[in-house]
């Protein structure tokens, strides 16, 4: 979400105003997003181990090869001719 917001700000907002001055409005928008990202990075997350979840994530029997993933993808979302 943040990367998308930053990309839209960068692409959709000029760096300079019509008077050829630095666009501080754009810089404030970027600063606000970076401040939020930093806030979330500094927050400590206490995540308790869930043995069943960990076992499921580490179980390699559910891993599909590339061809199997492609076939599953086509079953879920078949190709539509243009």
From TrEMBL:
Cellular component terms per the entry's GO annotation: plasma membrane
Example of a GO MF term: guanyl-nucleotide exchange factor activity
InterPro entries: Ras-like_GEF, Ras_GEF_dom_sf, RASGEF_cat_dom, RASGEF_cat_dom_sf
GO biological process, one term: Ras protein signal transduction
Keywords associated with the record: Guanine-nucleotide releasing factor
Ranges where the Ras-GEF domain occurs: 1-79
Domain of life: Eukaryota
Gene3D superfamilies per the UniProt record, alphabetical: Ras guanine-nucleotide exchange factors catalytic domain (1.10.840.10)
Name of protein: Ras-specific guanine nucleotide-releasing factor 1
Gene name of the encoded protein: RASGRF1_5
């Amino acid at each position: 979400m943040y990367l998308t917001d930053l990309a839209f700000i960068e692409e959709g907002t000029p760096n300079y105003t019509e008077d050829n001055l630095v666009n501080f409005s754009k810089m404030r928008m970027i600063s606000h997003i970076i401040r939020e990202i930093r806030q979330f990075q500094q927050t400590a997350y206490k995540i308790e181990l869930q043995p069943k979840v960990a076992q499921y994530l580490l179980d390699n029997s559910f891993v599909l090869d590339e061809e199997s993933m492609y076939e599953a993808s086509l079953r879920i979302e078949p190709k539509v001719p243009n």
